[in-house]
Amino acid sequence: MHWNSLADFLAMGNHGLYVWGSVLMMALLMLAEPILLRHGRKKLVARLRRQYRAERSEARRNSQANPGRSKD
Amino acid sequence: MLRLLRAVISRDLRLAMRRQADIVAAMFFFIIVVSLFPLGVGPEPAQLRRLAPGVLWVAALLASMLSLPRLFADDHRDGTLEQLALAPQPLGLIVLAKVIAHWLVAGLPLVLLAPVLGIQFDLGADALVVLMLSLLLGTPALSGIGAIGAALTLGVRGGGVLLSLLVLPLYIPVLIFGAGAVDATVSGLGPQAHLSLLGALALGGVFFAPWPTAAALRVALE
Amino acid sequence: MSNRVINWFRYASPQTFYPLAGQLIPWFWALAALFGALGLTIGFLLAPTDAQQGEGYRIIFLHVPASWMSMFIYLVMAFWAATGLAFNTRLSGMMASALAPTGALFAFLSLWTGALWGKPMWGAWWVWDARLTSELILLFLYIGFIALQAAIDDPRRADKAGAILALVGVVNIPIIYFSVKWWNTLHQGASVSLTKAPSMAAMMLWGMLFCALACWMYSIAVALTRVRTIMLERERHTDWVRALLADKE
């Protein structure tokens, strides 16, 4: 182990601001990207499901409206 | 093949002549942008001399980009482009002719105007000569590279801004060697190395760029 | 031989690639976490202080992997672009557009960490150093690619236009880098080079290597996740997407 104390580790030899600024930004963006992707994917799946349901119910209504059609 | 080149070039030039206002507007854009800089940074001759190569080159780069969106747009709208794509001759060759025509209309006038503007920046005679030479070598490369961007953004919404976004990063080497040549002359070093690299870029830009441009046009026409 | 070729093309169809990617993603996340933990432990807890740059040099464990990935992803993008144009496979274009945002992210991170490293080392947030400048131009290229694809509505045209742009970009990158370097030496750039760490101890190299591997695995995981979303979106009218989403209802 290179460090003597937690304070030493956090100070990074007076370069703490720069080192931790880099770490923070990198961690932030590399966490944000997958989270945003997950969110976008969920929204897409929900949208597609709604769309499919709407299409199905419309198809059902059409077949009820003209029952002769559904046979052929 | 040369006949085809000549036919397309003269046709494009005739069309451009019908819209002289566009050419004149691009030239005035060049003049105005260059003239703004002394107003922005102050009139000290020494400082202006240092800024001149970069300012003139960046302004020339932007001015030659102004007419790029129209490079294929008019032909696309009236269906000529589709006819050209179906022609037995390679589309790249036709693109090459259009690039040459674009340079004659949008690049050459910049070369001729630049020394006049260089005087505003207190450039010496040898620097003015190198400035003209560098623009003479560099602007064909700009037209060639620009054609790729014009073909990619053909018929795309927000095409003009997008075009500059695509093309400007690719212009950087031309800018560096072009402005560098003038800079080297001003500071007493020879411009030869810069100019020969610029020449290589121009050759590459003019003779290789038409092929990706042709591919991009085919994609746009699908 | 021909058998293998057919096999590869089979995986190039979204319908077969989608579940395969779904199975692979957790593994890549696990690898990313493992390598990341190793790399950060070595880099931030075990590696000795650098004689010249003090503790500030530890940014290297983030900066160098981010720069490497930003360049590497552009190459991979160009590779997918080339295969897309050559074989007209749908997957290629989707992979290229899935990679671009991650590449741009790493280019940005490389600039950010570079600036934070430059401040204590050079005394300035931004120096027109050849590497930083090229990285900035690379970010511009990524942004151009993303903007072009976003502006074109027809996905097939977007794929092909993006592929041509990526290939033009990849041919130009060496020219751009060379010209920027030339420009930089003429204007007497920074005296301390960022990547030339004076005495790279073996420990530092290992730390950097593991961090780079972690970023690599991360990129694959994220790109696969994104490509799956793109597939659903683009293939929403096909039966397999309908069946897939109906299953989980």
Automatic annotation (TrEMBL), chain A:
GO terms for biological process: cytochrome c biosynthetic process; cytochrome complex assembly; heme transport. Pfam families: CcmD. Its main location: membrane. It comes from the Bacteria. It is a single-pass membrane protein. The chain crosses the membrane at residues 17-37. Required for the export of heme to the periplasm for the biogenesis of c-type cytochromes. This is Heme exporter protein D.
UniProtKB/TrEMBL annotation, chain B:
The chain crosses the membrane at residues 21-39, 51-72, 93-121, 127-154, 161-182, 194-221. It comes from Candidatus Accumulibacter affinis. It is found in: Cell inner membrane. One of its GO terms (molecular function) is heme transmembrane transporter activity. This is Heme exporter protein B. Its main location: membrane. Keywords: Cell inner membrane, Cell membrane, Cytochrome c-type biogenesis, Membrane, Transmembrane, Transmembrane helix, Transport. Belongs to the CcmB/CycW/HelB family. It holds the Pfam family CcmB. One of its GO terms (biological process) is cytochrome complex assembly. It is a multi-pass membrane protein. InterPro entries: Cyt_c_biogenesis_CcmB, Cyt_c_CcmB_bac. GO terms for cellular component: plasma membrane. Required for the export of heme to the periplasm for the biogenesis of c-type cytochromes.
From TrEMBL, chain C:
One of its GO terms (molecular function) is heme binding. One of its GO terms (biological process) is cytochrome complex assembly. The chain crosses the membrane at residues 27-47, 59-82, 94-112, 132-152, 164-183, 203-224. It is found in: Cell inner membrane; Membrane. It is a multi-pass membrane protein. Required for the export of heme to the periplasm for the biogenesis of c-type cytochromes. It comes from Candidatus Accumulibacter affinis. Keywords: Cell inner membrane, Cell membrane, Cytochrome c-type biogenesis, Membrane, Transmembrane, Transmembrane helix, Transport. Belongs to the CcmC/CycZ/HelC family. NCBIfam families: ccmC. This is Heme exporter protein C.
